[in-house]
Amino acid sequence: MFEAPLLYVVDDDAQGLDLVCAMLHDLGLEYERFTSAEELLERYDDSPGCILASDRLPGMGGLELQLELQRRDFVIPVILMTGRPETSVIVRAMQNGAIAVLDKPCGSKALGSAVEAALAIDAERRYHRRRQASMRQRIDSLTCQEQEVMRQIVDGAPNKVTASRLGVSVRTIENRRRSIFAKLGIRSVAELVATVMQATPEVSRPTSRRPAAVADARTGRSLLCSAS
């Protein structure tokens, strides 16, 4: 179900808060008002939109709010509003991931452009997060043996080398490889590498030590589910 984006405006200056909210209203945008970063963090539930925060707030400031949002793994973009457009403030804000830094007070055109860009970025981030979660689910659907073959492919190992490492036949590796491609909905090694790097970067790193082959004595199937 589509959830409409919301603008979260954080400013302890009542006049400045009223001005920004009035411009957002004129632009046809929905918003919520907050007078502190702590109040926002207490109520924010990772909904889509963007945050417009003053750099100077009681308690946690706008720059610190950016870092706290990142620490909580929120993807929502932040627009910083400042009455002191100093280079150091702008640089810190951009280093912390701000989409834009606006002067206080700002004009409606500048505000509208910044919000439009932020909402587009928010939608893109959420799309990639959903796609990443879907990829992880597909990778989790692979058997232990298929995941080990997947790691070997990502490491660049040919089928013969993988078969030797895992103590199984080349045909077994080929069958597992076909199963991996089918389950992940891909058709090439390049797609596999891209999928794994995006979904599970910790798996995509080349291993410094190759895992020893561990196989069932009766079936010859690899019993190794994770890299050692």
UniProtKB/TrEMBL annotation:
<dbReference type="GO" id="GO:0000160">
    <property type="term" value="P:phosphorelay signal transduction system"/>
</dbReference>
<dbReference type="InterPro" id="IPR016032">
    <property type="entry name" value="Sig_transdc_resp-reg_C-effctor"/>
</dbReference>
<protein>
    <submittedName>
        <fullName>Response regulator protein TodT</fullName>
    </submittedName>
</protein>
<feature type="domain" description="Response regulatory">
    <location>
        <begin position="6"/>
        <end position="119"/>
    </location>
</feature>
<dbReference type="InterPro" id="IPR036388">
    <property type="entry name" value="WH-like_DNA-bd_sf"/>
</dbReference>
<dbReference type="Pfam" id="PF00196">
    <property type="entry name" value="GerE"/>
</dbReference>
<keyword id="KW-0804">Transcription</keyword>
<dbReference type="InterPro" id="IPR001789">
    <property type="entry name" value="Sig_transdc_resp-reg_receiver"/>
</dbReference>
<feature type="domain" description="HTH luxR-type">
    <location>
        <begin position="135"/>
        <end position="200"/>
    </location>
</feature>
<dbReference type="Pfam" id="PF00072">
    <property type="entry name" value="Response_reg"/>
</dbReference>
<keyword id="KW-0238">DNA-binding</keyword>
<dbReference type="GO" id="GO:0006355">
    <property type="term" value="P:regulation of DNA-templated transcription"/>
</dbReference>
<keyword id="KW-0805">Transcription regulation</keyword>
<dbReference type="GO" id="GO:0003677">
    <property type="term" value="F:DNA binding"/>
</dbReference>
<dbReference type="InterPro" id="IPR000792">
    <property type="entry name" value="Tscrpt_reg_LuxR_C"/>
</dbReference>
<dbReference type="InterPro" id="IPR011006">
    <property type="entry name" value="CheY-like_superfamily"/>
</dbReference>
